[in-house]
Amino acid sequence: MLQAALWGGIAGSSLFIGALLGIYKDIPKKISAFVMALGTGVLIGAATFELLTNAVNEGGILFPSLGFLLGAIMFTVAEIIITKKGGNERKRSTMNPKNHSGMAIFIGTIIDAIPESLIIGVSLLENHSISWLIVIAIFISNFPEGLSSSIGLKNDGYSKKKILFLWSVVLILSAVSSLIGYALIGPSSEIVQTMIGAFAAGGILAMVSSTMMPEAFEEGGPMVGLLSAGGLLCSLILTYYG
Question: Which domain holds residue 229?
Fold first, then answer.
């Protein structure tokens, strides 16, 4: 259980690292976009090669399909709600829209982080070892989010201490979510486990399509396509040798 919490915390720690750089260093937007593009490719690979493929191999096609669609639908609904409050700006380094709360950015980040961390705990129980692909994918994708959204919160008037406190909370929630995935979801039936894996895959793909891809292209231009493809290739290589 402690190992599950540890790896969940490590995967989520890049949010805090990105936040520190966003607060204290002037990082070019294009660099953040390139990292986000790479993370997009790695996350897509993790969702398909690791989560979805394993779910189908272990549980057939029906229940993983249902879990996948449910994950995509639930993330989309949550994204619509968060977008109305300005939370769609969580990956941008600009000032929040007028009358929109910076807290929506924080809540949106939690919506991204918790399902990802849950699946770390589930995979640890299933494979009796950590899935390096999932940990690396989450770590890479979290970094630009912590970086750009911290710049946006700073521009919106949030103090450095408050920003770091918010990301510390996310880091703790990531560790706890991974522990919960190991302790509560893991021992459940095979059908539930396969649906959870597919659910996470659906949520991840909906998330990268609606937030990471368009925002990376906006700041990084056509080069982000190549970097995303490179990230996907990295996922394939890690899956092959893992």
Answer: 2-236
Residue 151 lies in a domain: yes
- Report yes or no on 142 lying in a domain: yes
196: nearest Cα among 138, 145, 126: 126
233 residue type, one letter: L
Q: Decide: 42 and 136 in contact? Cβ < 8 Å.
A: yes
Q: Is residue 242 part of a domain?
A: no
Is 111 among the domain residues?
A: yes
Residue 204 has φ and ψ, to the nearest 5°, of -65, -45
10-residue block means of pLDDT along the chain (242 residues)? 80 85 82 85 86 86 92 86 64 49 64 72 66 79 76 78 87 83 68 79 84 85 94 88 72
Separation between Cα atoms, residue 11 and residue 114, nearest integer Å: 11
Using an 8 Å Cβ cutoff, are 210 and 78 in contact? no
Q: Which amino acid, residue 46? A: A
Domain count of the chain? Answer: 1
- Cβ proximity of 137 and 235 under 8 Å: yes
pTM of the model: 0.76
